[in-house]
Design goal:
With about 180 residues, this protein is an alpha+beta fold. The chain has one domain: FAS1 domain (Roll). It has eight helices and seven strands. Strand 5 and strand 6 form a beta hairpin. Helix 1 packs across helix 3, helix 1 packs across helix 6 and helix 3 crosses helix 7. The longest helix has 24 residues. It is globular, with a radius of gyration of 14 Å.
């Protein structure tokens, strides 16, 4: 059971990170005229992240935390999505521990979601963003580099029918954890 939970969490993280990277670099969806890829912009955030293939851990975690239906709903949402590589940077056992503590997992995942659509051009105009769990993210932009808290945004503006994904290089952890 533990290996299954680990695989799910890794899958969710990978998918989230890939989506965010795609938004910034436009390299995940190679056939799309808008973002550089082959997805349907009417597809929801979960479908777009799944198509990217780099957010397997994130998507698995969202499934474990019962957040998939929420992320498939009308929105709009902005997801700061860590890739599978970002989840792999966490200390050993962290993902497994989160999968065993669903309330904590859900809180961390909601810390990556903002309840409105924020495009890259908008990110440059704000200093903070309120997350779906009523916590505040710090937004810093300088020299064409954007950080959400300490995570670097690597890909921006991966659009979905119900919002946008920005890829980040680290998992965001609320300060009370």
């Amino acid at each position: 059971m533990k290996n299954k939970k680990t695989a799910i969490m890794q899958s969710i993280i990978v998918i989230t990170f890939a989506v965010v990277l795609s938004a910034f670099n436009g390299n995940v969806f190679a056939d799309c005229g808008q973002c550089g890829g082959g997805h349907d912009h009417a597809a929801d955030i979960v479908e777009v992240a799944d198509h990217a293939g780099q957010f397997k851990t994130l998507l698995a975690a969202a499934k474990a935390a019962s957040l998939v239906d929420t992320l498939k709903s009308e929105g709009p949402f902005t997801v700061f999505a860590p890739t599978d590589e970002a989840f792999a940077k966490l200390p050993a056992g962290t993902v497994e521990g989160l999968l065993a503590d669903i309330p904590k997992l859900k809180e961390i995942l909601l810390y990556h979601v903002v309840g409105k659509k924020i495009m890259a051009a908008d990110v440059l105009k704000i200093k903070t963003a309120e997350t779906a769990n009523k916590k505040t993210l710090s937004v810093k932009a300088n020299d064409a580099v954007v950080h959400i808290n300490d995570a670097k945004v690597t890909i921006t503006n991966i659009e979905a029918g119900n919002g946008v994904i920005h890829v980040i290089d680290s998992v965001l952890i609320p300060s009370n954890h």
